[in-house]
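Onboarding guide, step 5: your first structure request.
Type a short instruction followed by the sequence, for example:

Predict the 3D structure of this protein.
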Amino acid sequence: MKVTGTAPANALVQVFTVGAGGHQGETYLGAFTATAAGAFTGNVELPSGYALNRLTATATPPNTGTPVGTSEFTPDVAVTGTCSGGDLSVTKTASQTPRVDGDVVTWTVNVAWSGTTQNSAPITVTDTVGSGTFTSMSLTPASAGTVTGNVAELKAMTPGQAPVKITVTTKVAGYDGQLNKVVRKLLADRMIEYTIPEKPQSRHQKYRLTGQGRAALAKGPRGDAL
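The system replies with structure tokens like these:
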């Protein structure tokens, strides 16, 4: 939920819920710093199940001399567009597995919102590449937000909205070209295998001959026994 308002210049604004009976400052939600012109804006999320839907805030001016800035709770205000009962889910799948060094892999990240009201915005999704190279990121639909490098900023999502698909391509770290093709063919032909098959992308991964590979090696390049 976006909170906006005005306060003394450069003041620290702290936002709280209002409790039953009008008790101010029940739950701390977040803090923002006002601009030199006194404007502040930011996003907060109400506690799940919070029914009063009322907020209050304090504004503490910066200590620029004497006297030291002080603050009091503002009159509480009603708010709308809460996220109570909402559920944001993020799933990620790869276009292929196992993967070998040099492969270009497409990852699909689906962001879904199952809440009963509009969620807070923006939703920030950052895809950090491990032992590989980031190539690109895109959104479907493109109007769902913006992409900067490996960071997607999604707009507010509404009840019943189709999931937003984030497509990320990466390149697995390692060798390229002909050597990569040969390794993949040897793996496909079961001539070699991973030493850590349960973790194909482990940084400790190596390859070893299979029984079939040792038999082929013993026969020599023309199939004759050595």
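Each response can be followed by summary notes, for example: The mean pLDDT is 75.
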